[in-house]
Amino acid sequence: MDRASFDRLFDMTDRTVIVTGGTRGIGLALAEGYVLAGARVVVASRKADACEQAAQHLRGLGGSAIGVPTHLGAVDDLGALVERTVSEFGGVDVLVNNAANPLAQPLGQITVDALTKSFEVNLQGPVLLVQEALPHLKASPHAAVLNMVSIGAFIFAPMLSIYASMKAALMSFTRSMAAEFVHDGIRVNALAPGPVDTDMMRKNPQEAIDGMVNGTLMRRLATADEMVGAALLLTSDAGSYLTGQVIMVDGGGTPR
TM segments (predicted)? Predict the structure, then answer.
């Protein structure tokens, strides 16, 4: 390998990246990472003002960025997100399915409404968004999809069965997408965070947070920024031979 090839490994210059749930937490950290790596970034979330604030922040880092209000559970919004991205930046190279609904109900008390809302945002939205972006991903020489799942998809998840099951299903879709899209030059991988210090995490009771922390070897929450390296690996040329895989960024919480 020469210097020029090495310098291109994590370089996202001239690539367009969509990050759903990109206005806070892990999504915003990933969006920052992509902008700093040279990408044009589109952040999507439900709130228009949050989208604009995030886009302004990303532009302040020196990058090209727009915000597109999008509800992952609203099917019509998905096509509109892709259309706006393509009209603004000319294509889609990387899609990061990060938006999630953390609805939790104990087994025995699960409602149809909760199951439906979780399904629409955590599974239906990501899968249909990939379909909407597919023609543009096929046209990209550097196409990659990153599905954000969770270690909950791989471990015992009492009280979190709705969320964990949707993430497990998204993990299954990740493998199927990798197999079906490989001939189109599209790599598809997943990233499974452990406990991360975000708004979503802070809504849990302290004893639940303590339990998650104590379940890791490193005995601490991750910062959102600690997800950036793995995400870049999975979606840049540095991961050119990686597809159909999951990286568990969990502080050593999940025995393999």
Answer: 144-166
Distance CA 227, CA 249 (A): 7
HSE-CB of 243 using CA atoms within 13 angstroms:
20
Residue owning tokens 């793995």? 230
Q: Please, what are the averages of pLDDT over each run of 10 residues along the chain (256 residues)?
A: 96 98 98 98 97 98 98 97 98 98 95 98 98 98 98 92 98 98 98 93 86 93 98 98 98 82
Does pTM top 0.70 for this prediction?
yes
| CATH of residue 69 | 3.40.50.720
Contact 164, 120 (CB under 8 A): no
3-state secondary structure of 93: coil
List helix spans (H) across 9-60. Answer: 25-36, 48-60
Short-list 212, 232, 230, 231, CA closest to 220? 212
Active site includes 241? no
- Which amino acid, one-letter code, is at 145? V
Catalytic one among 34, 89, 154, 163? Answer: 163
Q: How far apart are CA 247 and CA 144, in angstroms?
A: 15
Indicate if the alpha-carbon torsion angle 226, 228, 231, 237 is positive or negative.
negative
Task: Give me the number of domains the chain comprises.
Answer: 1
Residue 38 near residue 58 (C-beta atoms within 8 A): no
Q: Does the residue 250 lie in any domain?
A: no
Q: Among residues 88, 103, 74, 81, which one has the least CA distance to residue 19?
A: 81
Helix (H, G, I), strand (E, B) or coil at 155: coil
Distance CA 96, CA 188 (A): 10
Token digits for 54? 């995030």
Spatial distance between the Cα atoms of 116 and 110, rounded to a whole number of angstroms: 11
